[in-house]
Design a protein that fits this description.
Elements: H1 9-12, E1 33-35, E2 39-42, E3 51-58, E4 64-75, E5 81-85, E6 97-100, E7 103-106, E8 111-118, E9 128-136, E10 145-151, E11 160-168, E12 171-178, E13 184-194, E14 198-210, E15 215-221, E16 228-237, E17 244-252
Length: about 250
């Protein structure tokens, strides 16, 4: 069996997007909470990396009293994320991560440091995730801030596979499963090949982040092709030692 095609160099060089975003309420705020970073990375295997900090600043013109609490999220196969109570999502960190302080009072222009710590004695057979969410107590119009937290043990590995590829009308759907124990950033493409293995065109797949144990259905527009037989090769780079690929025959009549 011949090896599958490689992902094009240009596509591998593309910037991968897809970190989970927090949907913020609309409206003009009387005070604005901003954080010094959007992401915290912890490693329970290294003492120096079991603690991290970020700064919350009130950039508005009114004082604000706020709470800092951990919340989890889950992402479905279509890439839609939903916030959940901490400890209610499989794979999330739950009580294995703590934040301090949990209550803030910030005058206009003031800032305070928040510490994120891996709980002592906690076990991490796989990477987990959560978010430190900063929420005003008495000002619902104030935009909240959130910092994603990932706890990634040194021994965690990236792995994944393409499970399926289906043409549905004018769209193409490719299914990737993260079979490793850490999140992966994926980028890929579908190569359309004619008999004789000549390359007809390349259809890029949108890059995204897939949490450990999760699957993602990636869709792309199916281009118009002349009548005849074709072979579709979907190839995805997930950051592991090898690429993953799946093929499907296509007949245009």
């Amino acid at each position: 069996m011949r090896p599958y095609p490689s992902v094009s160099a240009a596509l591998i060089a593309a910037v991968v997007a897809g970190l989970v975003a927090l949907a913020l309420p609309a409206g003009v705020a009387h005070a604005q909470l901003v954080t010094s970073r959007s992401e915290v990375l912890l490693n329970p295997s290294q003492a120096i990396d079991r603690v991290a900090e970020f700064v919350v600043r009130n950039s508005g013109g009114a004082a604000v009293q706020a709470t800092v609490q951990l919340e989890d999220w889950e992402v479905d196969a279509r890439g839609v994320s939903r916030w959940r109570q901490a400890g209610k999502v499989a794979g999330a960190c739950g009580e294995r991560v703590v934040v301090s302080p949990r209550n803030l009072r910030l005058e206009p222009g003031a800032a305070q440091t928040v510490r994120v710590t891996v709980s002592g004695g906690a076990q991490f057979p796989a990477e987990c995730w959560t978010a430190a969410v900063v929420t005003p107590e008495e000002a619902p119009t104030v935009v909240s801030a959130a910092v994603s937290v990932y706890v990634t043990p040194t021994e965690s590995t990236a792995d994944g596979e393409l499970r399926d590829m289906v043409v549905k009308g004018d769209s193409l759907e490719v299914v990737f499963a993260n079979t490793g124990n850490r999140r992966v950033e994926i980028i890929g493409e579908v190569q359309v090949r004619a008999p004789g293995d000549s390359l007809v065109m390349v259809i890029p797949l949108e890059g995204t982040t897939v949490l450990s144990g999760a699957s993602r259905r990636m869709r792309a527009a199916m281009p118009k092709l002349r009548r005849g037989p074709y072979m579709l090769w979907a190839v995805v780079d997930f950051g592991g030692a090898e690429l993953t690929a799946v093929q499907a025959a296509l007949e245009i009549r």
